[in-house]
Amino acid sequence: MRTFIAISIPLTTKIKKLLRDLEIHLKDVCLSYTNPNQYHITLAFLGETSSEQAIAISNDLKNLTFIKEPLLIELKGTGLFRNINNPKVLWIGTSDVSALKILWAKVNEIAIKNGFTASEDSFTPHITIGRIKSLGKDNNLINLIEKYKEVDFGKICIPELTFFQSITTSEGAQYKVIEKFKLTE
């Protein structure tokens, strides 16, 4: 089974406004939206995971107590992965990543301990809003990215991590919760 460890992200009022704006102004862009009920920030994409590895990872995550109080993160700004001329992913970012980087490092230690390769990319915490398949002639994507690049989408409390299974379907990836783990004591 394909797995990953992430922080689930609730849909805020300001994110809903962004989604409405995208639907209105990006009619010419072929954009495959992520299901808002599946928004998350990936801490470790593990890929193919055996049952034994999944059990071991779950046991290690149970012993991970990160902080004494719930983690608060601020969702802020939008951006694109790849480049402006050939964008592939539209995302929402976070403003202060220090606590998330510590958590990311701890989760990656668990992944390495259980036979997975550490991510060599630097950690860029983000929520994937959609994947861009093609840009149309009257593309307003850059204008919308500019409009929302400094927008505060709200502070959210992150009390737990989620270990997910990713299941590929004809409608795209579906995420099934394997187990949730509290970050606080």
Key traits:
185 residues; globular; alpha+beta; 5-stranded antiparallel β-sheet; 43% strand
Can you walk through the features of this model?
The protein has 185 residues and is α+β, with helices and mostly antiparallel strands. It has one domain (2-182): Cyclic Phosphodiesterase, Chain: A (Alpha-Beta Complex). The protein is built from four helices and nine strands. The chain has helices spanning 13-25, 51-62, 98-113, 141-148, and strands at residues 2-8, 30-33, 40-48, 71-83, 86-94, 126-134, 152-158, 160-169, 172-182. A five-stranded antiparallel sheet has the order 2-6-5-4-7. Strands 3-1-8-9 form a four-stranded antiparallel sheet, covered by helices on one side. It is globular. The model has no long low-confidence stretch (mean pLDDT 88).
The SS-based structural class is alpha+beta
Q: CATH architecture, please? A: Alpha-Beta Complex
Q: Which regions are unreliable across 5 or more consecutive residues at pLDDT < 50? A: none
Adjacency order of strands in the biggest sheet: 2-6-5-4-7
In short:
The protein has 185 residues and is of the alpha+beta class. Helices cover 26% and strands 43% of the residues.
Fold topology:
Elements: E1 2-8, H1 13-25, E2 30-33, E3 40-48, H2 51-62, E4 71-83, E5 86-94, H3 98-113, E6 126-134, H4 141-148, E7 152-158, E8 160-169, E9 172-182
Antiparallel strand pairs: 1-3, 1-8, 2-6, 4-5, 4-7, 5-6, 8-9
